[in-house]
Amino acid sequence: MYKIIPLDKGLENVQGFYCGSTNVGLRKNSEDGDVAFIRSEVPCDVSATFTQNKFQAAPIKHFQKYPKNFQTDFVLINAKNANAMTGDKGVEDIDALMSKLSAKIDVLNPVMSSTGVIGYRLPLDKIASAFDAFDFNGKDSNKAARAIMTTDSFKKELAFKVELENGESFNIAAICKGAGMINPAMATMLCFITTDADVPKSDMDTLLTESTEQSFNRISVDGDTSTNDTVMLLANKTSGKYHKEAFKEALEKIMFELAMMILKDGEGANKLVTFEVKGARTIEEARTASVALSNSLLVKTALFGEDPNWGRIASTIGASGIACDDEKLVIHYDDLLIYDCNNRELDKVREDKAYEIMKKESFKVTCDIGLGDGTYTSYGCDLSYEYVKINAEYRT
Predict the structure, then answer these.
(1) Is 188 an annotated catalytic residue?
(2) Total number of domains constituting the chain
(3) Same domain, 289 and 255
């Protein structure tokens, strides 16, 4: 068997990777950086999944210009400016930056990722000034993780050592950002995963897609999807070690735990709620209803108000368009029966118990449709006054 062992800190645990950040003035009056980098001492295979928003940002278009199965050894990341909806000039600006970077350090097919306000071209001179400040041989995952934050209230980084039965091992680590515009169609987020495992490129592509579906594609803060969403997996293979099942489990674990961090950090959020829909006619119908629940503004505000109003749950399922029947529907909050056809009204005992559940930081809503075997689980949070304040003042 194998062991997946949590490690302190983040990207610095992975052999052959370097990272850091600096502040060039994009993020004003802050000790945190606003331009970060991840560098590998050897070329990496790279797999990525991107936003489903039709208006993909310039960094994604720049990435897609490279030939299939290209390798890279450098990722440049900036905050405060999304470089989205900037047309061909946005891509040309990235090429210009990478040309300036190449004058400072040898790089292979460098890629870029951006987060921030949509509709403005990158301040090239400011970002290029980072190249004089970077310690390209440094290892400071903390600074890199903090530099990519936008409305995040805390940094998000994780690392694991995967120890195989024969004593051999490899490492996997990640940093990510995300707190708002989170929707189960990729989240409004950036995630950069590094590993020294000798993982084949074909496994990277398959496992990243599968793990994204089980993690970032199942969370919702506000039902919006940004132009820049990116999950990137970089493998430099320097450990020379690999075990497919162990790597798969470690990748799924790191991505799921990061997804839960994003949800817990949802702008102004206080609660993390699991929405399991089972008994639907098909998995697709279960997914439709589950995602509708995690996206519903009425459900989210009921969660914030700690109001056990099962009517909002039932109404959302009915409005989702799936096959359903109020005679067969059963709703639980954790293990507490909230609704079935014989218990349509909450008596005082059950209502008091429901209030206690809804006061918790995390709980589960289970909806049994009673028509089949389809099951799907997504994850959501409440919607508070603070969410409105943060987004009303986003550019200020």
Answers:
(1) yes
(2) 2
(3) no
